[in-house]
Write a sequence for this structure.
């Protein structure tokens, strides 16, 4: 047999050997153990696990259900007022221009620092091409999070997308204030009754008084008060809605279900005397605790 023929036969033999080994590897898996069959039950379980993995608290994703929060500005200089511009891109990649108003506006914009200080609730203006813009004042350096809270007209459910912003400089994070039941702001005393709960229906009532006398809150964005809760650590976002049919008065009761135990910062906005005021609380639910 010629040398070239012998080489060809040898190479052919190697191919057969390696093919057999690969087949055995697929059949037995590592360490010679039989590889588990991917049955229909496994497929269903995998699909269910994938679905569960996508169920996240609001505000943790920049893209969800085909919609994307696309910022045109992410870098800010502390101590200055700058325009924050952004777009909401739809599943087709184009700017969304049709929204269903909720609480008196098409889109709520929340900006807050990572340590949950410097909270701002803004109402940007939308241009005809779908570009939103709002003046934002970043007072201190640090990492910030911007939340867009909206409902596209093509979608029945509300959604909240979040994106990171940066203000370079000497970042001095603040400790999360200890849990409190009462706070004062602009001469008003604001108290809360009830604690957020995870895994159970819960309600929280906020009451406002001034000089020891209860005040009658004025409608603000279609409600007598708005409460946003942010979870310490990842800033998971919850817009706690008041009970339907809440009468005018000093009290606002909101649904206080939260996705997990832990520490939350509560931001309650109310209007009285034609001016909007912001009261802040720290609340701890379940076995959660603050991390200083």
């Amino acid at each position: 047999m010629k040398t070239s023929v012998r080489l060809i036969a040898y190479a052919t033999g190697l191919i057969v050997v390696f093919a057999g080994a690969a087949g055995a590897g697929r059949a037995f898996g590592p360490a010679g153990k039989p590889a588990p069959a991917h049955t229909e039950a496994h497929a269903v379980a995998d699909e269910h696990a994938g679905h569960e993995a996508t169920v996240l608290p609001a505000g943790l994703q920049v893209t969800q259900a085909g919609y994307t929060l696309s910022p045109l500005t992410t870098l800010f200089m502390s101590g200055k007022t700058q325009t924050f511009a952004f777009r909401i891109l739809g599943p087709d990649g184009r700017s969304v221009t049709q929204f269903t108003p909720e609480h008196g506006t098409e889109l709520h914009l929340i900006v807050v620092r990572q340590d949950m200080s410097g909270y701002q609730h803004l109402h940007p203006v939308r241009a005809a091409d779908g570009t939103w813009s709002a003046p934002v004042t970043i007072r201190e350096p640090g990492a910030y999070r911007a939340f867009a809270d909206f409902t596209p007209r093509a979608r029945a459910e509300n959604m909240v997308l979040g994106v990171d912003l940066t203000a370079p400089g000497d970042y001095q994070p603040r400790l999360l204030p200890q849990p409190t039941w009462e706070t004062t702001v602009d001469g008003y005393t604001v108290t809360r009754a009830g604690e957020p709960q995870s895994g159970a229906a819960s309600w929280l009532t906020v009451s406002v008084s001034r000089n020891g006398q209860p005040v009658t809150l004025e409608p603000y964005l279609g409600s007598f008060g708005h409460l946003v809760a942010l979870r310490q650590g990842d800033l998971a976002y919850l817009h706690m809605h008041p009970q339907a049919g809440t009468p005018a008065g000093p009290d606002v009761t909101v649904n206080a279900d939260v996705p997990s135990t832990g520490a939350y910062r509560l931001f309650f906005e109310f209007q009285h005397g034609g001016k909007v005021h912001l009261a802040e609380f720290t609340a701890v639910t379940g076995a959660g605790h603050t991390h200083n």
